[in-house]
Amino acid sequence: MNAVLRLLPASGRVTLRMTLMLGITLAGPLATSIAVAQDVPVEAPATTTDLDGNLNLPTNPKFFGKMDPNHRRATAIVNGEIITGTDIDQRLALIINANGGGNKIPAEEQERLRAQVLRNLIDETLQIQEAKGVGIEIDEEEVNQSFDRVAQQNFGQNTAALEKYLTSIGSSAASLKRQIKGEMAWQRLLRRNVQPYINVSDSEVREMMDRMKAAKGTEEYHIGEIFLSATDENRSQVLANADKIVEQLKKGGSFTAYARQFSEASTAAVGGDLGWIRLVQLPQELATSATTMGPGQLAGPIALAGGYSIIYVIDKRQVLTADARDSILSLKQVSITFPKGTAEKDAAAKAAEFAKVVKAIHGCGQVDAAATQIGASVVANDQIRARDLPVALQDTVLKLAVGEATPPFGSIEDGVRVLMLCGRDDPKVENGPSFEQLQSQIEDDRVNKRAQTYLRDLRRDAVIEYN
C-alpha cells in the first residue's frame, strides 16, 4: 500500500451529532513516543470512611461467607433484560481485533476487558431502556442504514462483506448493530432530556471569542482522553486499572478502542476525541501535562478530583494563525521494489541507480518517462495536506521547492521511494470558529458533564441480577 499517499484525515470537533467510529475501524497504533505524567500519591485511608454522613466503612473489612466477583459468570439480567455470554464474547472480539488480535493481548488483560465489556453492555442496556421509557424508539431501518455506511466507508464494500468479516473475527452483525442502536438511543435521549436545559448565553460566547483572539499565536491541541471516575474508596483500584490501560497503549493498543470501552466521559462514543481545544479549557492537571507534549505522545494516568485521565495529543497548531502543515500539496511518489530474497548489496546498488535517475529529473513533467526507464512506479495525489503526511516527512516536504524531490527512503522489504513536489497551495489565516460553532462546543462540554450524572443515576436505580 502506498501509505504515504493514503492517510486518514484528522477527525473534527466532537458534537452531539452521531459519529460512528467503531472498534473495528480504529486508527493505527499509537506512536512510540510516550510522555508519562508523574504519579500523584494517594493518601492512606483512615480506619473508617464516612460517605456523606451516611456510610461508615472499615478499611479492611472481614467478609462472612464466600464471594469472588472475579470468578462470577459474566452474564446478567438488567431490569429483566438478559445479557448473555455470547453477547459479551462477540463484543469482546471487536476490541481484541482492534488491538491486533488475541495473540497480542495477555489472557489476564482479556479477562479484564471481558469484565469491562459486561459493564458497557449493562450501561448500553440501561440507555436503550431509558430512551424507550420516554418514547424514543430507534427504528431498525436507521440502524441498518448506519451499518451500511460503516461497511461502505471503512471497507468499501457491501454489508455482506462486513458481516462475513465480523463472523471471521468471532463477532457478528447483530452485536455491532446493537452498539449502533445504543449510541443512537443515548444521543437522542441527551438531546431530549439534557440539551434543552443547557443554556449558554451570548455574552459567554463573546467572552470566549475575545479570549481566543487575545490568545492568537498560542498553541491549541487536538486531544483524545480516557476518563475513569474514582471515589476515595476505589481510587487505588481505578489507578491500577488506568496503569494497565497505559501499559497496553504503550504496546500499540488502539487509543480509540480503549476510549470507547473504558472512558466514562460521553466522548467515549467517538473514541475519546475532544477535538481542537486550548489548554485553558482543560483542568489544570491535564493542561500542565499537555504543555510539554508533542503529537503522538501519551500522558497518564493523571489524578483529578473525580478520578484519573489518560490523554493523547493527536496534533498541535497555533490559534488563529496559518499553519504550513495545512498546505495542500500536489505530490508524485516514485518507487521501486526489490524481488524477495534480494541481497543487501544488490539492493543498495539498485537504490543508488534509482537516486541518480531521480536527481536528474527536472520537474514533475519528466517523472513518468524517467520512471519507465528504471522500471519504477508512479502514484500521484493532488489533494493531500502536509499535516496528513507521516511526521518524519512533513518538514522535509515543506522545505521543497516545486519540482524538487525528497532524498530516497524505504527498505529492502518495502522498497525505496521519493516524493516530488508538483505544487503547493498555502493555507489562509484561520478566523477561528464561528459564534454558532463556539456556542455548540460550550453546550457539548456541559452536556457531557450532565450525561455522566444521568448515567450514574440510571445505574443506581437499576435492578441487576448476575448469573
Mind explaining what this structure looks like?
It holds the Pfam family Rotamase. Residues 218-315 form the PpiC domain. The chain is an alpha+beta fold and 467 residues long. The protein has 13 helices and 13 strands. The protein has a four-stranded antiparallel sheet. α3 packs across α5. Mean pLDDT is 76; it is low at 1-53 and 67-73.
Topology:
Elements: E1 48-51, E2 55-58, E3 76-78, E4 81-83, H1 85-98, H2 107-133, H3 140-155, H4 159-168, H5 173-193, H6 202-214, E5 219-229, H7 235-250, H8 255-262, E6 273-278, H9 284-291, E7 297-304, E8 307-318, E9 328-336, H10 344-359, H11 367-374, E10 377-385, H12 391-398, E11 409-411, E12 415-425, H13 435-461, E13 464-466
Antiparallel strand pairs: 1-2, 3-4, 3-13, 5-6, 5-8, 7-8, 9-10, 9-12, 11-12
Structural class: alpha+beta
Separation of the first and last Cα atoms: 48 Å
As residue ranges, the low-confidence spans are 1-53, 67-73
Number of helices: 13
Q: Biggest β-sheet, characterized?
A: 4 strands, antiparallel
Radius of gyration: 26 Å
CATH superfamily of the largest domain: Porin chaperone SurA, peptide-binding domain
Name the helicity range.
40-55%
CATH architecture of the largest domain: Orthogonal Bundle
Task: Write down how many β-strands occur, each being a DSSP E stretch of 2 or more residues.
Answer: 13
* Chain-averaged pLDDT: 76
Total individual domains: 3
Strand content: 15-25%
